[in-house]
Amino acid sequence: MGDGLDMEDVVNLGDGDGDGVNVGNRVNLISTSSSENFEPFVGKEFDEVEDAQAFYKAYARRKGFAMRTNHTVLSREDRKLQGVHYVCTREGFRRESLKQKERKIPEHAETKIGCKATMCIKKDGERWVVCKFVPKQNHDLLTPRSTSLLRGHRGVTRVQKKLILTLNESGVPTRKIMSVLSKESGSDFNIGCIGKDVENYLGNKRRKLFEEGDAQRLYAYFLNQQCKEPGFVYSMQVDENGCMGSCFWADARSRSAYQYFGDVVTFDATYLTNIYKMPFVPFSGVNHHHQTIMFGCALLVNETAESYIWLLRTWQEAMLGRAPSTIITDDDKAMAKAIAEVLPNTTHRLCLWHILQKFPEHLAHVYNKFPEFSKEFRHCIHETITCDEFEEEWSSIMVKYDLVGNDWLQNLYNRREKWVPAYLRTTFCAGMSTTQRSESMNKFFKDYVRSSTMVSDFVHQYEKALDARYFKEKEKDVRTKSTRAVLKTCWTIEEEAAKVYTRKFFEIFQDELFNSQRYKATKVQKEGESKMYEVAPNGKDKRVYYVNLESREPKAICTCHMFEFIGIVCRHILCVLAKKSRLDVLPSHYVVERWTINAKSRAILEIPVFEGHVMTQEDPVMRKNKLMMQFYDIAELGSQSSFRMNHLSLVLEKVHKELLLMEDVGEINLEAGEMSRNDSPMLRSQTGLSKIVASSFALEVQELELTLLS
């Protein structure tokens, strides 16, 4: 065998008498009368090297240590394996060169302390024989339960790898993946790996993808999507060196949704959701259920005006050349310049959520010194209805807290018509300038992507996020059409609104109608065909609203401007209409089509919409799902006793071999090409065998389930 395989310090445990016992599928062990644990001994034989390694690994686990292969011995003639030396993972010592090396990161704790435990095997004819065994360790041993945490006993199984990939692709973090694995295996100690192993496995997968080429995989994804879905569009910039630049893509669903709900769009570049820190720029809006929907998205190499100009032009072309009436963005000069050039007729508003996020940073000294400032400032921004009210409260706050000379505040004030709600109330924003919408968008993307997400993986995650959003939309559609709204008043207008609006917006309308009863309308002015009403609440709230009503038609304008801002008639106008006994019908000019049940009834002929692949029982995914559900029931029955488990294991092994045989037959059939089965008796018999095995498999599964139930 060579050095290291001499017979010194050999412990021979072969003197005791015992019986042959079969452990696992292939390893024969000797059981002593004094102990149930099986230990190696000099002279013990194995059929294969793998058997010896598995045996010593199982022994090490029972004893409380981990093993590794120290070295192997090859023959000089044909370089075939002749011997293997297994040792404890704590054998040897750390090299001095590694100890003396200057480290930028803290040095890891030493694990090698010169442990002498070992088992050596050598080739003897066709079998492998233990030629040396040293059981003694120079360190504390762990309990069998704790041993599962040692590196030598850890590993991610093939089944676990599939589950980990599925969970990771769904945006589940490592911490929660470990919780799922723990639940599946019964406890943390039964998983067989730790969180670091999961991270290493995913990291290795990611490195392999890097080697394949991230940009190339992204391009392949775009081409594949366009083949599957004619309405899918994309655009990629390539620099002079052939490297990928910015890219944009939109599926047919997003393009169609824009034709229905693209009057108001948010355009945000604050999401850094990939490993290259490329800004992810989604175009989003809200549908007829007031759910966030996407109108396409892009990954930019930089945030210059030129990049935004390219993106806006590409996006507008994908949206059939239609420009939105209002676009809401974060406060960015390059973005504002691009919008002014590409969308000159679109009203540009700033996202209130992003602006308010900056106030505690720029006015930290005020927030810390004056606790009441936050409440007063919030009232000034959110509770003022008219521009005059805002101006009055703003001036008061500037003087009270000595902020008159603050340049940052003055810059924001100069652009107040772009972000202050009091100035936005006359512009239709579909309720999207509120803070909740941007917070919802942040959560939407964080559920699916992280900063470590590769670009080529990101598009798949984005597609999953889209699928989840459209599924939620379908749920709302079904709820609206399959249920009847509960009415709260006796007015006919409420019943009519329930038939027109989606459930979400009917509930908003219903709330306004019901609360209109809390107000009293008084006519205070009349000019020609127009009358002005003062609408005041009956309770303690003394805020007064004014409604102008045209006499010839029930068309009114309220100082709250709820209809102009959101598209639902307000309680103040409804109060006036009730006074005039005009609540028998819902006026058509108060019905905004985008909030109705039939908002998407108009066909968009220019965009071929891909409704998605309808899976049948012949689809591999459906077949796998059906089998998994069936196997789950069988596994539950098989786990109820050792007898049932052993019976199930034997049957599954038999079925497994039959399925592998079917796979081989399938390969032979493919290789046969166009060879006629009538000319080949062998192929005819193999094909017949495939059909027999396939039909018998289903019968065996049913019989197995009946056997376990009995």
UniProtKB/TrEMBL annotation:
GO terms for molecular function: zinc ion binding. Residues 545-581 form the SWIM-type domain. Keywords: Metal-binding, Nucleus, Zinc, Zinc-finger. InterPro entries: FAR1_DNA_bnd_dom (IPR004330), FHY3/FAR1 (IPR031052), MULE_transposase_dom (IPR018289), Znf_PMZ (IPR006564), Znf_SWIM (IPR007527). The keyword Zinc-finger applies. The keyword RNA-binding does not apply. It is found in: Nucleus. One of its GO terms (biological process) is regulation of DNA-templated transcription. SMART domains: ZnF_PMZ. GO terms for cellular component: nucleus. Putative transcription activator involved in regulating light control of development. Belongs to the FHY3/FAR1 family. This is Protein FAR1-RELATED SEQUENCE.
